[in-house]
Amino acid sequence: MHLQRTQQYLRSISSFVKHRIPLAQALNTRIKHHSTTSTSHPASSHLPLANTTALITGASRGIGLAIAHLFAANGATLVLVSRNVATLAGVLDGLPSPFFPPDPAFTSNSSLASHAPDGYSEDASSAHQAPDSRNNSSARHQILTGDVGSPTFWAVLKQRKLNIELLVNAAGVTHASPLFVTGTQCLEEVVRTNLMGTMLGCRVVGRGMLRGGGCIINVASLLGLKGGTGSAVYAASKAGVIGLTRALAAEVGKSGIRVNVIIPGYIETDMTAGMTPAAREEALKSIPLGRFGDASEIADAALFLATNRYANNCVINLDGGLSAT
Ligand SMILES: NC(=O)c1ccc[n+]([C@@H]2O[C@H](COP(=O)([O-])OP(=O)(O)OC[C@H]3O[C@@H](n4cnc5c(N)ncnc54)[C@H](OP(=O)(O)O)[C@@H]3O)[C@@H](O)[C@H]2O)c1
């Protein structure tokens, strides 16, 4: 199994390098043009997230992926987290350079799925307890695979002593079922991933920010405020994330750590792709803007929170007006 994983790594690294060469050449051309030996484009140092390292959980798909693209385009160095190394390797491959805008196609989950070798999920499950990292050959971004709900994952991350100034807790799962028929295992998975994962991330990465300040952005859900049939467990976990954000914003603001939360309504991602046509129709009827949001619209809010130095305890609803109905 170990050998198999190593081979998979080498294959994905060689495909990564293969794709990166033209970009590296373009970069060299520009550097020469500006007569500098610096390894980054001169213009990139003026980007809002230049010299900032951001850890993003749930970066393999949907909202976390959109945030990763926008942050990378704005100069951040990224640490990408999810449970699936192959998917993250594909994400790494598609990240924009700091001085190029994000590719609009990145929000398409199907295009990303094509990066993942078949049958990898079995291998990914074995990576839960031991984060696995790989440096990007352009020396900027890296990936870490593991389960955010596992204290071991965060303990291993802590040992790596990464200097993270920006944390986005976007990893999340949902199970739509009435509480009385929801099994304990399912209940635990939702609470462990959504609430414990966010809390552990805040504790480990936030403590590291005590050195020089930083910003934490949590992703909750409108269901955490409003409730909804079949969402008791998910709603409870997300209400917890909102409470956690508020308390932490008061607790660590004086240390220069800003803590904020985004509250999305319905967003077009894998998470909503499984809705029945009837449920989708019903949801659309109650959204004043008449559509689901795009993951890039949540990423815009994350960039605002990351860069606005007075943003602390911000609770940003992005739901097309659903919360008003
Ligand atoms: N889409 C919506 O309508 C909506 C609305 C409100 C709130 N939200 C919230 O927004 C966040 C992002 O959701 P999304 O719509 O982008 O969902 P998504 O497309 O299903 O992506 C979920 C992400 O979380 C990661 N993840 C799940 N469990 C994990 C675990 N235990 N450890 C590490 N990573 C894990 C997944 O990665 P792997 O599977 O590769 O591990 C994936 O990257 C979630 O917190 C969700 O609750 C979404």
TrEMBL record:
Q: Which Pfam families match?
A: adh_short, adh_short_C2
Q: Which GO terms describe its biological process?
A: fatty acid biosynthetic process
Q: Where is this region: Disordered?
A: 111-139
| Organism domain of life | Eukaryota
One Gene Ontology MF term: oxidoreductase activity, acting on the CH-OH group of donors, NAD or NADP as acceptor
InterPro entries tied to this protein: NAD(P)-bd_dom_sf, Sc_DH/Rdtase_CS, SDR_fam
Cited SUPFAM superfamilies: NAD(P)-binding Rossmann-fold domains
UniProt keywords, alphabetically: NADP, Oxidoreductase
User: In what ranges is there compositional bias, type Polar residues?
Assistant: 123-139
Protein family membership: Belongs to the short-chain dehydrogenases/reductases (SDR) family.
Q: Can you name this protein? A: Uncharacterized protein
Q: Give the originating organism.
A: Calycina marina
Q: What is the lineage of its organism?
A: Eukaryota, Fungi, Dikarya, Ascomycota, Pezizomycotina
